[in-house]
């Protein structure tokens, strides 16, 4: 008994079968069997006169269309209405006439290569139009960073269709899960179908904004109290008393230090120290817990007090953000200076709200007797060291802190602060 599978194979002299493709145009695309004829038939339901669909580079479906009165946007919208997402072509190439062979059939070998219709992979600005449209709100900025990282580009216009820059269904699935993680969205609040139908940063930002509003609808019972002083939480009391009683010595105040160390891996993308400083101050302004003092009240109760933003930043100028030059001493290494910073007797002072510090450790090369070409830029192997007291920080805080710090740096603190955002003091009372 034989089963006609539609697969073509060649039998060599050793009796081995070599797969040669298929007799029909069924393909396996991203793990799913697809009949290209179904896509072609869907396209033929429009005003086009002929078409052919091929798989290209394993990751893309390319539709060649013969027409003079339809555009790619109209074809994509039609396919989105009639085909599942994984069957929608990445590129629609519209030709005046499809090439034919001597038998009058479409000659696939003479079709123009799809690569010439994709944006060049080295191009820095991906746009649909001549003008690059940059993101203008927080959500669009976050999506722009995600897209640029995914496609390894410096700029992508927010009106760019993801399918025209090499995107496909698997990438959209990755973005969908990335959005859920980044914006803390539930499965029901964001639909992947919407991302396929509006595959631009503008479109995705709009649906994410709606999803966030849905999530916030269930949080309306929570509202900030705008407190600046309240009794300390149980965790704050425990840490404060433990440090006072067991570790009263100044030399032991490092016991609750949480250090975060980051190394500059490449000098290709310059990192501005001035912008780092502004981003550092911005995060302190945004999160009142990073400027919260703990001390005994006149009644002997431990209280938490959120210090004034402007006064706190002015008071921190001498020590909160500092630059240290690491001279090229191989015997000394980097562990010793980091340890010295963490062990410094004046690292923290809970009674004054001094719970966070940032140190820039710069690698000075003494062999060349040269200083930095630009004192405001970090170079390869320079270090950024954050020290944060456990009374204001824990393991769950790291992702929030790094997200806000990175976003503040990327936007140069241009995004407004939300005065109605919930603070730690609101949850603790």
UniProtKB/TrEMBL annotation:
GO terms for biological process: amino acid activation for nonribosomal peptide biosynthetic process; secondary metabolite biosynthetic process. Pfam families: Condensation, PP-binding. Coiled coil: none annotated. Residues 134-212 form the Carrier domain. One of its GO terms (molecular function) is catalytic activity. One of its GO terms (cellular component) is cytoplasm. PROSITE patterns: CARRIER. InterPro entries: ACP-like_sf, AMP-bd_C_sf, ANL_N_sf, CAT-like_dom_sf, Condensation_dom, PP-bd_ACP. This is Carrier domain-containing protein. It comes from Rotaria sordida.
């Amino acid at each position: 008994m034989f089963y006609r599978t539609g697969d073509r194979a060649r039998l060599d002299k050793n009796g081995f079968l070599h797969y040669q493709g298929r007799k029909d145009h069924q393909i396996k695309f991203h793990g799913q069997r697809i009949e290209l004829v179904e896509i072609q038939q869907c396209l033929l339901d429009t005003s086009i006169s002929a078409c052919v669909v091929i798989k290209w580079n394993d990751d893309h479906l390319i539709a060649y269309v013969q027409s003079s009165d339809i555009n790619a946007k109209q074809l994509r919208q039609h396919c989105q209405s009639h085909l599942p997402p994984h069957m929608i072509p990445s590129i629609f190439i519209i030709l005046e006439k499809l090439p034919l062979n001597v038998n009058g059939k479409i000659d696939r070998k003479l079709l123009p290569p799809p690569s010439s219709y994709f944006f060049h992979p080295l191009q820095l600005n991906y746009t649909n139009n001549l003008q690059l449209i940059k993101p203008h709100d927080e959500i669009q900025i976050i999506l722009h960073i995600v897209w640029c990282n995914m496609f390894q580009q410096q700029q992508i216009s927010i009106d760019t269709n993801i399918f025209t820059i090499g995107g496909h269904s698997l990438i959209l699935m990755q973005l969908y899960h990335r959005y859920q993680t980044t914006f803390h969205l539930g499965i029901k609040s964001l639909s992947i179908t919407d991302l396929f139908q509006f595959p631009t940063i503008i479109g995705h930002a709009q649906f994410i904004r709606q999803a966030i509003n849905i999530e916030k609808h269930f949080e309306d019972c929570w509202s900030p109290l705008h407190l600046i002083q309240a009794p300390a939480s149980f965790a704050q009391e425990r840490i404060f008393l433990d440090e006072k009683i067991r570790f009263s010595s100044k030399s032991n105040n490092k016991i609750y230090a949480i250090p975060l160390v980051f190394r500059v891996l490449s000098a290709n993308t310059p990192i501005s120290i001035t912008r780092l400083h502004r981003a550092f101050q911005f995060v302190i302004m945004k999160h009142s817990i990073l400027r919260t003092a703990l001390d005994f009240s006149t009644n002997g109760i431990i209280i938490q007090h959120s210090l004034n933003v402007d006064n706190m930043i002015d008071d921190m100028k001498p020590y909160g953000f500092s630059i240290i030059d690491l001279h090229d001493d191989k015997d000394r290494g980097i562990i010793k200076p980091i340890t010295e910073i963490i062990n410094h007797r004046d690292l923290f002072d809970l009674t004054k709200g001094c719970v966070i510090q940032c140190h820039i450790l710069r690698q000075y090369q003494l062999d060349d007797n040269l200083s930095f070409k630009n004192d405001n830029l970090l170079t390869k192997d320079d270090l950024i060291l954050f020290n944060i007291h456990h009374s204001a920080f824990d393991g769950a805080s790291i992702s929030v802190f790094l997200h806000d710090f990175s976003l503040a740096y990327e936007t140069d603190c241009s995004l407004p602060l939300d005065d109605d955002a919930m603070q730690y003091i609101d949850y603790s009372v």
